[in-house]
Amino acid sequence: MSKLSSARYTVADDCGAVFADMYARGFTDGLPVIPPTQTAVRAMLDAAQLKPDELIAVVPPERGPASAEKIAINAVMAGCLPEYFPVVVAAMRAVCEPKFNLLGVQTTTNPVGPVLIVNGPIRKALDINCGRGCLGPGTRANATIGRALRLCLLNIGGCPPGEVDKAIHGMPGKFSFCFGEFEEQSPWPPFHADNGFAREQSTVTAVAGQGTQNIYAAFHDPADIVTMLAHGMAVAGNNGYLRALGNPLVILSPGHAKIFADAGWGKPRIKQALFEQTKIPRKRIPRARQLSVPVYDNYADDELCLICQKAEDILIVVAGGPEAYHITYVPNFGTTVYSMAAI
Amino acid sequence: MRTRTIEYLDPVSPNTDEKLYVPAVGALKDKRIGFLSNGWASYNAMGAKIEQVFREHHGMKEMRTYKIPTSCAPPEGLLEQVAAECDAAIVGMAN
Question: What is the pLDDT of residues A301-335, one digit of tens each?
């Protein structure tokens, strides 16, 4: 049996005492955690068949080494079951890909945090919520997988809120933000299949999201749904417009997806329509110099500011309750590209 | 009565890479100083003032500006390029 190399702390065997000790040391997100005992950590490692010293990633900003052992410790703390651990490991690989720009995501004044989208058979195996309430509380897998990633970014990345994580306000999704795509209720190929993965392959996708914006679009005509959605997305103060980069994320309910599909709209057509309708004329944004000079700074009055570089960069997934009422839009950090890892 | 205790593992993983320290550049006279600009207006304003002070009071030969993406690490290879082309560089400020 491989030895676990992490330092050990001993406290009174009491839930409150453990939490108080770990909180005082800055190990938590402010919520109680499960004590990462040797037994619990080994169970995590065994579930993924990983040796403790296997290096999974190097985590910015402090470039802390994320060994399997350290990720397992944080996954125990988050409340993960051992069978969730392979998803947490894959999520760490995804966010530490250079194109994701985790350094920027971790340290910015923006409220951004990684949003995890799970595809493939593992969703059912782990009971990951893809349906009603999938972005909210109530499902252990969703809550703890997302939280495990956040604790890793805190403890391994060396990014305590306020000190190194300079988010001015932060956002609730920085506790946990993980859900599954409702592939069974989608009329289109799943997200990971669009990206070249086999349907049978489980994957996790990390998107750098600034929070959620609800858009009520209870229309029957796809064009009207797109118009309403575009109104909600066309916010000049979102980072995507600053750089005309990034991956705006749209989460459609199965009901909305069906309306689109029944009318012959596929994801490419929706993306193109959204890209066009989210363009903002320069004259609608004040001309005064901003602290960070945006890409549109010298545009002429009628020149159009873009939400991202091209229509294909808008991401669309299907999840949530069935009603064609509400759409969730996740604005993007901008200087980041979504990243995927096989589970 | 002895209190029962529980032992837990440390979740933190500090970077233990060896820190590389290089000699200070010393006097700035006739030196070329690099300036990595990330597009923040306040940072660039300070950079302009620093350049003025370095030239007028310390005899700096040149301040060479390198543009880097906002909110990102420098692109791969850029720091090596700066190190090759400059005697020292300002790579960031807590502005």
Answer: 999 999 999 999 999 999 999 999 999 999 999 99
Q: How many CB atoms lie within 10 A of CB A110?
A: 25
Q: Which residue of A has its CA nearest to B69?
A: A335
CA angle in degrees (0–180, nearest 5) for A146-A244-A236 = 85
Main-chain dihedrals φ then ψ at residue A11, nearest 5 degrees: -135, 170
Å from A251 to nearest chain B CA?
26
Q: Enter the ipTM.
A: 0.93
pTM score, whole prediction: 0.94
Q: What is the DSSP string of A234-293?
A: --TTSHHHHHT-S--EEEE-HHHHHHHHHTT--HHHHHHHHHHHT-EEGGGS--SPPSB-
* Chain A contact probe: residue of B2, B5, B7, B9 with most A CBs at under 10 A: B9
The widest CA-to-CA distance across chain B, in whole angstroms, is 75
Q: What ranges do the domains of chain A cover?
A: 15-109+136-176, 213-342
User: In this complex, is the C-beta atom of B18 within 8 Å of any C-beta atom belonging to chain A?
Assistant: no
Q: Pick out chain A residues at pLDDT < 70.
A: 1
Using one digit for the tens of pLDDT, what is the confidence trace for A264-300?
999 999 999 999 999 999 999 999 988 888 999 999 9
| Distance linking the first and last C-alpha atoms of chain A | 24
| Cβ–Cβ below 8 Å for A333 and B71 | yes
Question: Closest-CA residue in chain A for B95?
Answer: A291
Distances (CA, A) of B81 to A119, A211, B78: 41, 38, 5
